[in-house]
Design brief:
Layout: E1 9-13, H1 37-49, E2 54-57, H2 78-86, E3 93-99, H3 105-118, E4 123-128, H4 147-166, E5 173-176, E6 181-183, E7 193-194, E8 199-200, E9 215-218, H5 223-231, E10 235-238, H6 243-256, E11 268-277, H7 281-293, H8 297-308, H9 334-347, H10 351-361, E12 365-369, H11 371-383, E13 389-392, H12 399-414, H13 427-431, H14 439-449
Helix pairs in contact: 2-3, 3-4, 5-6, 8-10, 11-12
């Protein structure tokens, strides 16, 4: 029996009214939508009708210090938003961000178990260690935890949360009304975890999630982030803006799975893509230029200064980047810092030009062209070892999602690169991921067979 041809995975990253920094100023958007739950529900229904694997909601734990000039994230926290979306959809996955640096494992385990039950097996957790140093001041901390320590804590965090989800075996809830037994207590186990960062007794107070674990998603591309992904991640959102770097990342991270007893098909790598779609190439370039004309220079310069850990306001806007600190000295997002530095050097960009480049996708792949050119670009990355699909960063919403579904998806389907229908009901089904076996059931099986 021949194996079905490999197809792309597509995730819609919903960030307010679009990923371009000035999307809120574009006449085709409505800033008030950012506080309208119906808007997010409609976008998700549109993505589901197009058979996307999932939608993704990012999160930040500190107000954008440059909010005078524009928003950076959604206003809603992810769990409320995703629960409301899951109520009006049936198939599409719902992925949300939660921090391992400024959360507790028991709370996160309960929240994602609840979301997976509410959505009937469609939840995913985007695991972040939080790059914004200002978040520390909102959680009774004077300083942001150092980068490697954040990942050390994250490793323990995942050991605890996955352990809590396993505390209930899948058949622990029996609801035996004649016998008067609600649960089989022999199949609910304490965790009794004790580590450097956490001490958690357990068990959790909700049955095991329908998927076993919500899909574990990760977004870090630093050395620590890659190793974390090799051990835990089942999907990765990564920022690559050229095929060579994408291929290196893909090969490196997939190669790390073996040491953890995993295989390459247990991880989907989805780089961000911000497509600017025109019926002609000149139309696409005009759309790109139009969006950049709405930019407030101070906003982009401020965002870039934060990422670079250097005040760029004192340097000529039309000059090159100044000498920057080494990546080892960055305690925020190391991988994004490196993406910006490499992009500026490779394209020989001025500071102004760099702010324009990153306005669409913050260092993710930005491509302006016709539907044919964009699909060619996507197919090259997909077939040449650069990705397993894409995390779509629509520049402005909802128009660019509509344009993608009307002009890009038909050509992807014509080439056999994307599904025409869902073949499963859970997010794990969509991504081709197996359901994790419960550790206690597994141990009992081994004892029985010994």
């Amino acid at each position: 029996m021949s194996k079905a041809p490999r197809q792309m995975h597509l995730n819609l990253f919903i960030q307010g009214i679009g990923h371009h920094e000035a999307a809120w100023r574009h006449p085709n958007t409505n800033p008030q939508n950012m506080l309208d739950i119906g808007y997010y529900q409609r976008l998700s229904q549109q993505a589901e009708a197009a058979k996307f694997d999932s939608i993704f909601i990012a999160d930040g734990l500190a107000i954008n210090s440059n909010i005078k000039y524009g928003p950076f994230n959604n206003f809603f926290e992810p769990f409320t938003l995703l629960a409301s979306i899951s109520a009006v959809t049936r198939h599409i996955g719902v992925i949300g961000t939660a921090s391992t640096t400024y959360s507790e494992p028991y709370n996160i385990a309960r929240q994602f178990a609840s979301l997976d039950h509410v959505s009937r097996g469609r939840a995913g957790w985007n695991i972040v260690t939080t790059g914004n140093e200002k978040s520390a001041h909102n959680f009774a901390k004077d300083v942001h935890l150092e980068h490697s320590q954040r990942y050390e804590r994250a490793h323990e965090f995942l050991e605890v949360t996955t352990g809590l989800w396993d505390c209930w075996e899948d058949d622990a809830l029996i609801a035996d009304r004649p016998g008067g037994r609600f649960v089989d207590e022999s199949k609910i186990h304490p965790l009794n975890y004790s580590g450097k960062h956490f001490k958690v007794r357990g068990p959790i107070d909700i049955p095991r999630p329908p998927q076993g674990y919500p899909v574990l998603v990760q977004a870090g591309s630093s050395k620590d982030g890659r190793e974390f992904a090799g051990r835990f991640a089942e999907a990765i959102y990564t920022a690559q803006n050229n095929l060579k770097d994408a291929q290196e990342f893909y090969s490196d991270v997939k190669g790390r799975l073996l040491k953890y007893g995993r295989t390459p098909d247990q991880l989907c790598i989805l780089p961000g893509l911000a497509p600017i779609i025109g019926l002609t190439e000149s139309e696409a370039k005009e759309k790109q230029q139009e969006l950049n004309e709405y930019l407030v220079p101070e906003y982009g310069l401020h965002q870039l200064s934060q990422s670079m850990n250097l005040d760029l306001f004192t340097y000529p806007l039309d000059g090159p980047l100044p000498e920057l600190p080494p990546v080892e000295q960055i305690n925020g997002g190391k991988s994004r810092f490196q993406v910006y530095v490499d992009l500026a050097k490779r394209e020989n960009l001025t500071i102004r030009e760099l702010t324009h480049w990153i306005a669409f996708g913050r260092g993710h792949d930005t491509f302006a062209g016709t539907p044919q050119q964009i699909v060619d670009h996507m197919e090259e990355w997909f077939t040449q070892g650069g990705c397993d699909g894409f995390n779509l960063l629509a520049p402005h919403l909802p128009a660019d999602l509509t344009s993608f579904t009307e002009h890009i998806l038909p050509e992807l389907r014509r080439r056999g690169l994307f599904r025409t229908e869902y073949t499963g009901t859970t997010l794990r089904d969509h991504l081709g991921l197996g359901r994790p076996e419960n550790r206690y059931a597994s141990m009992a099986k081994h004892v029985k067979n010994a």
